[in-house]
Design goal:
This protein is an alpha+beta fold. 45% of the residues lie in helices and 9% in strands. Helix 1 (7-18) packs across helix 3 and helix 4 (122-134) packs across helix 9.
Amino acid sequence: MSIQIKPSTLEFLNDLKDNNYREWFQENKTRYIDATENFKQFVSALIIGINEFDKSIGSLDPSDCLFRIYRDVRFSPNKEPYKKNFGAYMAPGGRKSSFAGYYFHIEPNESFISGGIYMAPPDIMKKIREDISDYEEDFLAIIDSSDFKKHFDLSDADKMKKLPRGFEAGSRVDEYIKMKHITPYHQLSNEDLLNPNILEYSLSIYKKMRPLVEFINRSIE
């Protein structure tokens, strides 16, 4: 039987959204543990499935891929102690990896599949931008393909106002070089998330993302 996301996992996050305070969370700790375990099992299955077409991520422990639900509120005006989502990043070394990888996000009405590279250090982004510029045709062949455009959105990417120093304007990849992150986005409805075939579907989406992940990681290496 295929691993899937349980309705109770989504229900917990939905209730947490309306009750984001410590007392409620402690009273519902068992629900949190059950929901986390469900997500961890799902991520474990994703890791196994991704390794079938991208062995670079290796034999990851799901715990190394999951992000904590606890928020750091020290310097934030938002003092809610908990995130309203579950997230996992599957890349060489797990969630702290400096390489491109695959991301899964569960949040009521805002779930999505993503990946690529997010908040990379300046030296790494410089390498990626240089390869986008130097291997323009290879990069465009990936992100301009009909299959990529059908399944991913890059239009909302956070961008620099100007090209970074060292790059001349006028190429077909100017707007991509301006990107602060390269994170293809594939939205999931609640119905998509709870579909019994969500594991197989997610892996099919990640497989379509693989050429971009490989391009970025070649740049980094």
